[in-house]
């Protein structure tokens, strides 16, 4: 769908808060690779057919006529005279992927109904309009959500999915040529209206702030597809959603205004690999406005200081669109940016292609340990409501685990859910678990997240719309026990025979790790050559010494954890990772360490002299994070130098704002999913004492003394096999050093007596 009044503006004017990094135009290589990319995106089915496009336009036209009839009906019911009834008007606007022009076949359409001041949201929109829609044969699956943070009515019209919001303006009459981009439109409106208008205002502003709309759209289609293939497309899971990716791409378009999509994709990965989060990404300066609405400003708003990956919306009131990001999901996305950058460099050397970039992430091969969250209800309607509520709380489980294990246990939430067709009204979510990379291994150390899980389940069970049959279970499963229904066709694949980019990186990193082990001062325990189940030991003395100097020395384990979930408790053998092994995404350990520095210090290390001198090797808990207005232009020749680009990127991130790095315990209380914040019921005291407000900071991860006297540890209580948290590429055989444990139903339970048993069995 076109954008009226918004054509391609490649006139060279400045867009954004800094000058471009490069004004260089495309090379012959860029033209060829861009054509390849466009063909690739078409072949994978990202573009809708002409028939579907026409059908969507017809549906939108019909919907616009429906709301016009609706507003006249309620105006007449209000007793207005016939002239006012005829003047009464409502209007439909679109936003999101459809308005941006990057939607695919079958995608829903985000729409906004704008009505006059006498048309209320509760009685008229969710009352009368809902009734009108329910009586229409073209409408199906009608589902109002009036209590959401942004109230919405969901339905299908002639098979086209519609999300319809409502904004009640202070105007008596809505003009047909209404311009909702003007800030004055927000005067005397309620919070729900401001939030409902925000989507349209942000979308339109993005299109105004990019130099070439067609190049922006192609690049955004590419990045959305890439993010979905790599498992990092989901706002609710703590990754990034559609608007976040649009803002990131738009900023790259501003920095390289004359580049074609091929170069924009490459520079996307290059820029955001070097980006020092939590420096914010902004398309324009933040305006205070005259209406008194709160805007994102870490200098004034304490909560804003703890956002890990701020991506700021360009329309007033500016806000952080990515507050859901956690340290774990930021680490994962940082790794993926690095991977993308490496592949783009390989493509330039003809050592990779677009297929390589878009290789799907093998989530169920990437980890050895997972959490499985099963939910069920008695009917489809209950499951839909229960599912929405649980999804809104899953991010809290990630945050709690990070908080109570001091980021030693890292979580990778899968962005989607899975359904077992043999079980009606049931679905499952999964989280990959692994020990923090680069931490040395000691025996007998465990992560105990039983209390954390119970606290999470308690926060879920306070749902105000809870009904009998709405249940949730959290279990620990190993990779080999992942249920078959998560795989395509319900068939578990054999070990992958195809060599992928990730697998090659794993092998290359292993080879380089073995070759350089002597230089790194590692002492390896060599297996005896028999598959007798004895683990291989690798002790990294340097990492161990460094860990003893950290603030975690008295609070967290200094090694790979044992995994326990439930009762009875079984010990987990420790199969260590070398400090320079690649991680589950195929990246080398220095890259992982860079991401970890990002999480713990709020900075990604830079080799520039300017940054080294300004920070002097110290971490003060704050960053400068708003770019200055001093312009710079790197010539086309200089932009070919990565070092020149790096210095340009550093320049972009210098500025007066200050943002503080968030710590897990602070993050967990910052932003609940606001869509469901009014759907919490008070339960009162529980037998386990797991009321969230009463939980001390240290209660979530009980410390378990290790049998080897190495100090306290945390354990994740498991009821079955014995296996260490480690990436998939570490294939050393693992045996069970403790007595056999009877298989039991793998439910996570509180079992304080088993804490001592865990210590006894660890030796």
TrEMBL record:
Using the UniProt record, name the top-level EC class of this enzyme in a single word.
transferase
From the UniProt record, list the reaction(s) this protein catalyses. RNA(n) + ATP = RNA(n)-3'-adenine ribonucleotide + diphosphate
GO BP terms: mRNA processing; RNA 3'-end processing
Q: Where is the composition biased (Polar residues)?
A: 547-561, 570-588
State the CDD domains in the record: NT_PAP_TUTase (cd05402)
Q: Where are the transmembrane segments?
A: none
Q: Where is the Poly(A) polymerase RNA-binding domain?
A: 363-421, 422-490
Q: Return the PANTHER family for the record.
A: POLY A POLYMERASE, POLYNUCLEOTIDE ADENYLYLTRANSFERASE
- EC number(s) on file: 2.7.7.19
Listed Basic and acidic residues bias regions = 531-541
Q: Which GO terms describe its molecular function?
A: ATP binding; metal ion binding; poly(A) RNA polymerase activity; RNA binding
Q: Which GO terms describe its cellular component?
A: nucleus
- Give every Poly(A) polymerase nucleotidyltransferase domain span: 16-210
Q: Which UniProt keywords apply?
A: ATP-binding, Magnesium, Metal-binding, mRNA processing, Nucleotide-binding, Nucleotidyltransferase, Nucleus, Transferase
Q: What broad class describes the main subcellular location of this protein?
A: nucleus
Q: Per the database record, which ranges form the Poly(A) polymerase central domain?
A: 215-359
Protein family: Belongs to the poly(A) polymerase family.
Q: Which cofactor does it need?
A: Mg(2+); Mn(2+)
InterPro entries from the UniProt entry: NT_sf (IPR043519), NuclTrfase_I-like_C (IPR011068), PolA_pol_cen_dom (IPR007012), PolA_pol_NTPase (IPR048840), PolA_pol_RNA-bd_dom (IPR007010)
What subcellular compartments does it reside in? Nucleus
> What ranges does the record give for the region Disordered, renumbered to this chain?
1-21, 510-591
Please identify the protein, giving its name as recorded: polynucleotide adenylyltransferase
């Amino acid at each position: 769908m076109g954008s009226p009044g918004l054509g391609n503006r490649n006139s060279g004017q400045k867009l954004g808060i800094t000058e471009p990094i490069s004004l260089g135009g495309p090379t012959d290589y860029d033209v060829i690779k861009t054509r390849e990319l466009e063909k690739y995106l078409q072949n994978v089915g990202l573009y809708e057919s002409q028939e579907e496009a026409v059908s969507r336009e017809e549906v939108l036209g019909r919907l616009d006529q429906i709301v016009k009839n609706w507003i006249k009906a309620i105006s007449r019911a209000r007793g207005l005279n016939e002239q006012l009834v005829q003047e009464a008007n409502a209007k439909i606007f679109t936003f999101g992927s459809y308005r941006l022009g990057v939607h695919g076949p079958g995608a829903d359409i985000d729409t906004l109904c704008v009505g006059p001041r006498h048309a209320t949201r509760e009685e008229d929109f969710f009352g009368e309009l809902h009734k009108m829609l329910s009586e229409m044969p073209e409408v199906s699956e009608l589902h109002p959500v009036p209590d959401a943070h942004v109230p919405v009515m969901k339905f299908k019209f002639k098979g086209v999915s519609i999300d319809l919001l409502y904004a009640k303006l202070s105007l008596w009459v809505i003009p047909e040529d209404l311009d909702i981009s003007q800030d004055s439109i927000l005067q005397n409106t309620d919070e729900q209206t401001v939030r409902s208008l925000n989507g349209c205002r942000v979308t339109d502003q993005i299109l105004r702030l990019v130099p070439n709309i067609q190049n922006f759209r192609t690049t955004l289609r590419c990045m959305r597809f890439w993010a979905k293939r790599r498992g990092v497309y989901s706002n609710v899971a703590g990754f990034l959603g559609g608007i976040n990716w649009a803002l990131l791409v738009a900023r790259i378009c501003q920095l390289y205004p004359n580049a074609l999509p091929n170069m924009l994709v490459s520079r996307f990965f290059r820029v955001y690999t070097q980006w020092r989060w939590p420096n914010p990404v902004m398309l324009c300066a933040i305006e205070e406005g005259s209406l008194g609405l709160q805007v994102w400003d870490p200098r004034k708003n304490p909560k804003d200081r703890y956002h890990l990956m701020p991506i700021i919306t360009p329309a007033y009131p500016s806000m952080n669109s990515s507050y859901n990001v956690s340290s774990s999901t930021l680490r994962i996305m940082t790794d993926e940016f690095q991977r993308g950058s490496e592949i783009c460099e390989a493509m330039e050397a003809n050592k990779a292609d677009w297929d390589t970039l878009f290789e799907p992430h093998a989530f169920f091969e990437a980890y050895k340990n997972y959490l499985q969250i099963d939910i069920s209800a008695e009917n489809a309607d209950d499951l839909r409501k229960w599912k929405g509520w649980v999804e809104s709380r899953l991010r809290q489980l990630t945050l709690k685990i990070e908080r109570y294990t001091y980021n030693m246990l890292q979580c990778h939430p899968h962005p989607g859910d899975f359904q077992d067709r043999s079980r009606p009204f049931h679905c499952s979510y999964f989280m990959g678990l692994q020990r923090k990379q680069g931490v040395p291994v000691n025996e007998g150390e465990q992560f105990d997240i039983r209390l954390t899980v119970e606290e999470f389940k308690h926060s879920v069970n306070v749902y105000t719309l809870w009904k009998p049959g709405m249940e949730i279970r959290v279990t620990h499963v190993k990779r080999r026990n992942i249920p078959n229904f998560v795989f395509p066709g319900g068939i578990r694949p054999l070990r992958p025979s195809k060599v992928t980019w990730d697998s090659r990186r794993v092998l290359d990193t292993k080879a380089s790790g073995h070759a350089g082990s002597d230089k790194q001062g590692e002492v390896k325990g060599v297996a005896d050559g028999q598959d007798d189940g004895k683990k291989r030991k690798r002790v990294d003395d340097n990492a161990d010494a460094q860990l003893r100097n950290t603030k975690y020395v008295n609070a967290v384990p200094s090694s790979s954890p044992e995994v326990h979930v439930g009762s009875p408790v079984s010990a987990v053998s420790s199969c260590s990772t070398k400090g320079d092994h690649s991680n589950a995404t195929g990246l080398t350990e220095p890259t992982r360490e860079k991401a970890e520095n990002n999480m713990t210090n709020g900075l990604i290390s830079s080799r520039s002299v300017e940054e080294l001198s300004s920070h002097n090797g110290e971490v003060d808990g704050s960053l400068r994070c708003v770019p200055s207005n001093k312009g710079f232009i790197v010539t086309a020749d200089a932009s070919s130098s990565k070092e020149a680009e790096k210095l340009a990127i550093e320049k972009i991130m210098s500025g007066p704002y200050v943002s503080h790095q968030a710590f897990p315990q602070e993050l967990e209380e910052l932003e609940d999913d606001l869509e469901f914040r009014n759907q919490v019921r008070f339960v009162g005291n529980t037998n386990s004492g797991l009321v969230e407000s009463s939980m001390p900071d240290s209660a979530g991860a009980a410390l378990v003394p290790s049998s080897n006297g190495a100090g306290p540890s945390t354990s994740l209580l498991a009821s079955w096999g014995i296996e260490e948290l480690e990436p998939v590429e570490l294939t050393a055989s693992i045996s069970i050093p403790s007595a056999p444990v009877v298989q039991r139903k793998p439910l996570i339970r509180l079992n304080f007596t088993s804490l001592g048993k865990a210590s006894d069995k660890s030796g």
